[in-house]
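FIELD: query
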Amino acid sequence: MFHPGQAAIPHLSWLTGHNWYTRHLVPTDSRRLRVCAVSYLNTTPLVWGMLHGPQRGRFELDFRVPAECADALASGAADIGIVPSFELTRQDLEVLPGAGIASHGPVRSILLISTCPAAEIRRLAADSSSRTSVQLARVVLERKYGANPEITAHPPDVDAMLETADAALIIGDLALRIDPAHLPFHVYDLGAEWEDLTRHPMVFAVWAGRKGLATPAVAEAFRSSCRYGRERMEEIVAAESAARGFAPELVREYLTRHIVHELGARDYAGMDLFLSYTEKKQCTPCF
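FIELD: result
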């Protein structure tokens, strides 16, 4: 089972033997660590302390979509990032324990929208912004519904996606702008689908960094930033609802009922199970 703070997940052999990073990419004490965060609403509490609290100014922050954060780590453009959990199968990273993005049921922001029942899906158009969401769709469709669709990348536009495929995978803030109850399609919340399939939480993203950077002090700074945000949820609701054009009630419910930011042993057990499923499937990124 995965233990936070370890450089590898013991049963996943692909996390060993990678020496991708040259000596000049390792940061020195003379500059701040470069942190790549996700631009979606669900990440806001994680970085609230870095933006407005005691951790402000400690890190050099950049905001991107999840897959781009992973690529920034791979290229050496970032030292630490909030990366899709599936990325742990592709890069030799150390996880900063205790904070991330998970759900213990419906996640609301990862929706599989289909013109047919899930078991009949043969072509899936996917927003490629998060590799974990794409792999989760693969796992759920195969293990729960016996479907193994062809998956292709497509800009996140439901109508256009459904013109070329049986189903569309929509994630992030765009999914929050969709009211599933008013769609004339089959709608599957992949957080709920995973929990129903496994009875485990689903970890979508974790803070992870290149070897040697996840010191206890750095990991505690990330956990403290998360706690700072969680303790100031009404500040976040007011600021983010105005900035993103969401109703305050939606932001509050999403960040307090659907998204889990403080991760524990049960969350990491769920992540371990998800990664073992992708390993058995020998999943490779679609994009």
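FIELD: remark
Confidence is low (pLDDT under 50) at residues 5-30.
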